[in-house]
Write a structure and sequence with these properties.
Number of helices: 14
Structural class: mainly alpha
CATH class: Mainly Alpha
Length: 306
């Protein structure tokens, strides 16, 4: 259980520092927005590019990843259906669907995989799946939902290539597929810039908590509670059902996929919501609550299946 708690402790400390910065006004009124832009347009794409450029793309094809992909699609689909039935706007529904199934596979998943599952590389396929497929699709939807109606069809088709996160991810995949890594003088600066992504996103998230209402209240109360329930309870249950009944996983592989599914919503979802100025409170509150709830959930999963 030390791995679970230590992983969350790191996240909590950095978010706490961000909260203090916001409370003191150290970075000014626009500090959080500047950090968000830095993470979205520069550091995030650099991190994704360098990660994927070195990745083994064959890891995308495994039964474990299929469980994660199907469980993500299932819980996100439930949120989308409910969002459509209740008449929520496209951007709000998209952010809520992401918060329901997009796991924190990077800054939280890696330490938990290392300490709880014994192998940090186990989250690599999930990271690849999310940044190669889920992120470009979701951000394209957000781009198109807020696009100017006068935009040309060609401009709309090129939307993914105009998004820095999607562009960084796809470029990294291309480099990995070609099999010719970039020389050190090019890769090292990108790696250094990419290291700013996670702390910048966490600090911006912490700053956003200052002055915000208690989570699970207000106009976003229902979508927040729905996304947290789907993320923290629904996705692990779906993953366990698929892993045991469909793919026949047992032992360590079963523990891997269920723990991964129980990870909370990723902090970079708040970065996306802030960038597009849509459902920011929904993203912030969903991330916060799912992070808190996931601690006992993952402890329980590790105790039962470990």
């Amino acid at each position: 259980m030390v791995g679970v708690l230590s992983g969350f402790a790191v996240i909590a400390v950095v978010i706490g520092v961000g909260y203090l910065l916001g409370r003191r006004g150290t970075l000014g009124e626009q500090g959080g927005e500047v950090l968000t832009r830095l993470a979205f347009t520069v550091a995030g794409p650099a991190l994704l590019f360098t990660t994927l450029a070195r990745a083994d793309l064959s890891a995308l094809f495994s039964s474990r990843l299929l469980v994660t992909a199907l469980s993500t699609a299932a819980v996100s689909g439930v949120f989308v259906v409910i969002g459509v039935l209740r008449g929520w706007e496209v951007g709000r529904t998209t952010i809520g669907a992401l918060c329901s199934g997009y796991v924190n596979s990077g800054n939280l998943g890696i330490p938990i995989a290392a300490y709880v599952l014994g192998d940090a590389s186990l989250v690599a396929p999930v990271l690849l799946f999310q940044v190669v497929l889920v992120t470009p699709v979701a951000l394209t939807v957000l781009d198109l939902s807020g696009a100017d109606d006068a935009g040309t069809v060609w401009r709309r088709l090129l939307t993914p290539l105009r998004n820095p996160i999607a562009l960084g991810s796809l470029s990294g995949v291309v480099v990995s597929a070609v099999g010719r890594p970039l020389p050190g003088p090019l890769m090292n600066p990108l790696t250094l810039i990419g290291h700013m992504s996670v702390p910048a996103a966490l600090l911006a998230f912490g700053m956003s908590l200052h002055g915000s209402a208690a989570p699970g209240r207000g106009r976003d109360r229902y979508p927040v509670l729905l996304s947290v329930a789907l993320k923290s309870v629904g996705q692990p249950l779906v993953a366990w059902t698929l892993a045991t009944a469909v793919f026949g996983l047992r032992g360590a592989p079963l523990l891997d996929v269920v723990v991964t599914a129980a990870l909370p919503a990723a902090q970079n979802l708040f970065t996306y919501a802030s960038r597009y100025r849509v459902a920011e409170s929904l993203a912030r509150e969903s991330i916060l609550l799912s992070t808190v709830v996931s601690v006992p959930v993952m402890v329980g999963v590790a105790t039962v299946l470990g």
